[in-house]
Amino acid sequence: MEQTLTAKLQILVGPEDRQILSDTMDAYVKGCNFVSEKIFRTRELNRYHIHKEVYYPLRTLFGLRSQMAESCIRTAVGKYRAILAAQKEWIQPVFRKPQLDLVWNRDYSLHPQTNLFSVNTLRGRLKVPFCAKGYEESFSGSYRFGTARLVRKQGKYYLYVSVTGEKPELERSEVTRVVGIDRGIRFLAVAYDSEGRTEFFRGNTVKQKRAHYKVLRNGLQKVGTPSSRRRLKAIGQRENRWMRDVNHCISKSLAENNPEGTMFVLEDLTGIRAATERVRVQDRFVSVSWPYLDLEQKLTYKALKRHQRVERVDPAYTSQTCPKCGHTELGNRDKKQHLFCCKSCGYRSNDDRIGAMNLYRMGMEILEHDTVAEE
Ligand SMILES: [Zn+2]
Fold it and tell me: Which of 5, 68, 138, 183 could serve as a FRET partner for 342 with CA atoms 20 to 30 Å apart?
């Protein structure tokens, strides 16, 4: 799993080096403001056109090196694009704080073995020590550095550098907690965890909204004109965006509210069996459709980032099996009363959480099985 983060490294400089860095940053900021003014007057955002106008002045007026001049142009254009995207109007950015934008291997490099930061300045290469406290992990194993920004704050120098590295997947042997997640209709998702807590994610509004979209779609399908087909497509896209957003919120909540080392256990819904077993006929249009797989994908991605994992298990009978004794019988569940009552051990519970409890139990069994196999 690839992960990019911004590391903040303190750069440790003596008085003489401090002067060199300070002069370089000042010249760079002046250069950025020079380009910014030029863009504001010409409304020109094409880097190659701007380059023709400003490159030599940047070199001669501010003494910038070739790469620094290029970076001034890129930084100013980038700032304008960001402002235009957000505010939709031409506002001239003014660069006030000392900064220096750097491209890896061209303008700067970092050497973890010697703890040295090497950077191009107005007076050539400068090598100074850096402190990677808190980011040691970024400098072990396979990592790549991206662009960086050198800044000065209260007399101290910091390098903000984007670091991309492989984050190892959480192995089953490292799992410390299990959360069973059942996906249903009455509740979009129900989670049951190692501490015996149940969390319900409401599905009612989702069900209503999807039914509403379905009615809209059916009406338009009957009309069949080109404009109704366009409307149909637009409605479909709106519905999909909205559903993805719901899934994003649920998966985010699950990943963020559970610690590292958590294993989420979900039904493997690749087959059709789960749907025919658990869903009433009039609800079928919300059953084995992409939203469920979308939720699974989103959770898998977020879990990887947080050093958690997702395990998929066979969904057979999850709603009919007693989570306490494992007894499976259709009659365990009273769908009308939303009640689960085990015919064997007498365990009773609201039936909405039974699926999640069983998934939790199946997850624990997988871990136990792993342990036995190891010994
Ligand atoms: Zn039982």
Answer: 183
Dist. CA 330 → ligand 1 center (Å):
13
Task: Tell me the percentage of the chain whose pLDDT exceeds 70.
Answer: 89
Give 90-112 pLDDT, tens digit per residue: 999 999 999 999 999 999 999 88
Identify any residues that bridge with 188 across adjacent strands, giving them in sequence order. none
Distance CA 321, CA 344 (A): 11
Q: Strand pairing of 333-334 and 309-313?
A: unpaired
Q: Which positions ≥6 away from 33 have C-beta within 8 Å?
A: 94, 95
CA pair distance 112, 367, nearest whole angstrom: 38
Evaluate if pTM is beyond 0.70: no
Give the phi and the psi of residue 90 in degrees, each rounded to 5: -80, 110
Total domains, the chain? 2
- pLDDT score at 276: 43
Residue 207 to residue 186: CA distance in whole angstroms: 8
Three-class DSSP category at 319 = coil
| For residues 17-33, average pLDDT | 96
* Cα–ligand 1 centroid distance for 204 (angstroms): 29
Do 332 and 281 lie in a common domain? yes
Q: How far is the CA of 351 from the centre of ligand 1 (A)?
A: 13
Ligand 1 midpoint to CA 53 (Å): 80
- 321 alpha carbon to ligand 1 midpoint, in Å? 8
Is the pLDDT reported for residue 54 higher than 50?
yes
Q: Which domain holds residue 325?
A: 172-204+253-374
* Beta-carbon-side half-sphere exposure of residue 165 (alpha carbons within 13 Å): 18
Indicate the length of the chain as a whole number. Answer: 375
